[in-house]
Amino acid sequence: MDGGNVRVQLRVLMVVIGMMMMVVGRVTSQDYEDALTKSILFFEGQRSGRLPPSQRMTWRKDSALNDGTGSNVDLVGGYYDAGDNVKFNFPMAFTTTLLAWSVLEFGQFMGSDLQHALDAIRWGTDYFLKATSIPGTVFAIVGDPYGDHSCWQRPEDMDTPRTSYAVTTTNPGSEVSAEMAAALAASSMALQASDAQYSLTLLNRAAMVFDFADMYRGSYNDVFGALVCPYYYCDGSGYADELIWAAAWLYKATNNQSYWDYVLKHINNLPQYIKRMDTDGMPVSGGSFAEFGWDSKHAGINILVSKLVIDRQLNPSPFVLNADKFACSILPESPTKSVAYSPGGLLFKPGSCNMQHVTALSFLLLVYSHYSNDAQRGIQCDNFAVSPSRLVQIAQSQVDYILGKNPLGMSYMVGYGNSFPQRIHHRASSLPSMDAYPAHIDCQGGSQYFETENPNQNLLIGAVVGGPAADDSYVDFRTDVSQSEPITYINAPLVGALAYFKAFPSS
């Protein structure tokens, strides 16, 4: 071999090694505070309605200012759940519940970002007060999902119908109603210190909406199946978990014994195995103790209630036992592990938009680690015990992967780090802003912005996308919805996790 070529190859190799070392150095030390700030800022990009003077993501403008008009009710406000322009109140309520839980557990670590987190919660609860303002009625969807999904259009320009869909005493939807009650109850606690009167309003409404959800039981699938099934938010786990979840939050907020009695009465009626729906509309079966997300609340119930059970030395069955089983189902070394891990270490569960599982389950691990550590107890996985700190390690590995400690050396949070997704599946982000192009863009007029290989025109800072495939590969293009779409309930639990690691970066 020619000596000159060898020297060139060696120089190239050294450059590559140097670059790799720089990347490793860059991604192994995360700026959790910056990521926290951006993860909360993302919610401002998802706002619907009339934006306040404090709006920081200024390329977004007022939108959907006539929502609810056709039903003679004001339904302006709330959040668009993902990259579309429909308001699905079921996942929106779950998002708000998780934001509130994040503040309740880790708000003391948020510093100046705490107020922005509270603002994000209140943007949701202001809307839920509107959506539950008529007794015997809970509004569940605003917008036409199929019409909206056929257009690539800014929310500021929407031409598609803004129909309001409600569940009622004769057409009940316990899932969405109970989740809204949970959101209102959790938020009442998160907002109590900053606005006691508003907090009381939320709590009173939570109790009213829970009574409605419980008294008039039924699945909103039966009412809105054509709108939410199979590709949107079809509930696959039933509504019993949402009712217990809401009762647990109401007990935490009120200390009213009747809510605790409700939890105890119904918890053993939950099925041990459930069939949830992934976001491709495909059924996925598994142990209910291991499930947590917008559809299934089982693991969240067990962990939320476990603190009460542990602190009061009550019967640990089934809450603490199932919480332990959940934690063990995540640990890579556990004999009862029920999740997979990519070669680069990212947790995977079946279905699309995998990051929703990564952030929600990581948050639960942190919360349960906190509860277990306070009680000075280990987590029992069959024949071996795991320390609470091990749960923190797993959660941190997942957060670090999201922020760039992965085989591609890229962050999956838009605007964080030097390399992040540029072509996310998000209408408002991909289309020119109203400032840049004030003329109306109709339903099909935005197609060119969807199809272009150019990066999105507006940075949806803080948005976390669906994430890479199981082999750690990532397609940075809008057409790959599963990988490139950001969703509010990916970010909500991540807010809490980032607050924790901001305070304890060397966990």
UniProtKB/TrEMBL annotation:
Record's keyword terms, sorted: Carbohydrate metabolism, Cellulose degradation, Glycosidase, Hydrolase, Membrane, Polysaccharide degradation, Transmembrane, Transmembrane helix
Q: What is its EC number?
A: 3.2.1.4
Q: Which residues cross the membrane?
A: 12-29
Biological process terms in GO annotation: cellulose catabolic process
Entries under Pfam families matching the protein: Glyco_hydro_9
**InterPro entries documented for this protein:** 6-hairpin_glycosidase_sf, 6hp_glycosidase-like_sf, Glyco_hydro_9, Glyco_hydro_9_His_AS
Q: Report the residue ranges that make up the Glycoside hydrolase family domain in this protein.
A: 32-498
GO molecular function, a single term: cellulase activity
Q: Which reaction does it catalyse?
A: Endohydrolysis of (1->4)-beta-D-glucosidic linkages in cellulose, lichenin and cereal beta-D-glucans
Q: What class of enzyme is it?
A: hydrolase
Q: Where is the active site?
A: 425
SUPFAM superfamilies xrefs: Six-hairpin glycosidases
- Disulfide bond: present as a keyword of the record? no
Q: Which family does it belong to?
A: Belongs to the glycosyl hydrolase 9 (cellulase E) family.
Protein name in UniProt: Endoglucanase
Q: Which organism is it from?
A: Vitis rotundifolia (Muscadine grape)
The organism that produces this protein has a lineage beginning with: Eukaryota, Viridiplantae, Streptophyta, Embryophyta, Tracheophyta
